[in-house]
Hints:
This protein has about 400 residues and is of the alpha/beta class. The protein contains 12 helices and 15 strands.
Amino acid sequence: MKTSRRGFIGGVSAAAIVSSSSVALGQKKYDEGASDTEIKIGHCCPYSGPASAYGVIGKSHQAFFKAINEAGGINGRKIDFITYDDGYSPPKTVEAVRRLVEQDKVLLLFQTLGTPTNTAIHKYVNQKKIPHLYISTGASKWGDPKHFPWTMGFQPDYNTEGQIYAKHILANVKDPKIGVLMQNDDFGKDYVDGFKKSLGKDADKIVKHVTYEITDPTVDSQIIQLKDSGANALFNVSTPKFAAQAIRKAADIGWKPAHYMTNVSASVAAVMKPAGFQNSQGIITAAYLKDPTDKQWENAPDMKTWRAWMAKNMPGENTSDGAYVFAYAVATLMVETLKKCGDDLTRANVMKQAASFHNLQLPLVLPGITVNTSPTDYYPLQAVQLSRFKGETWDLFGDVMHAESS
Length: 406
């Protein structure tokens, strides 16, 4: 699948984008993929396959940059957004990214999705010195500028998120006996490593640890094994399809553990509703974005702007799916980065600008959580707030917690 679209973001006025005051004075500088009229951005994600629930992120980016272009582009340049379907398959990701770099000759890669898939291209893009920005995975290894100076993540890292869940279990579940369901790849392992690290001497409270492969049809047998282990707490480390299955199966067999689920599967539309709202009550996750089903944000200016943007640019799409919120927020950050580059659209300057944000408040990110980066800090967002599923939406509780790894 190839889509080359030209496009807008919300939350930032067209005039602000077109007439940005950050345009650099002096000589224009370009690397391959940029010119007086165009900036080429490369992307791939699973529009098909077992992780296709994330395909809406890529569709959002297409609409986003198309709208940007209709509003005049970024500093007068149109975005050529080129996206391919990699099916969440590392070999296909390698093929897609090589095509983007060597044939399409993009200036940068943006929001390539998945931990195992990005792992497969990690060394290649750094050897090629291609900006590999705001990638759609929270693995902790994306924040390693010393060894991989061309790769930067976006969301709070999985390792720290796992630590937060472990601490909450120890503090709130009486005599915890923990069962772990883990996707058997780098995504799952990063969460569980942080979880075990935080448990420390209490790691023996994990009474059962089961895994599944992304190609498995269901996780039904794994949920039965976890219930049979006597676990009274579940750490559910899975992507949307399997997260919904796990919730539903636990309800089917009458298992009601204290249930902790990773943020990447917290979508009301893609996970909680398919699993059954009645089966999802009390599940805890960690949030850093405003949930579109949470009534407290109904009159927030950024939420109103986003809903209007969705109605205009993605009519008919399910606005209860938090993946659209995620896509909008991170695309806003990409635009802000390119605005800061001005007329110096070299790959080195793209990375320099990406690594120089201070307390930037993005639309749809929770209050108190801002983007901060530096040449030694490649974790743009490093804070979360716990949230519990109640009724048909998420209910935030507690304080905003800043990641220990930041």
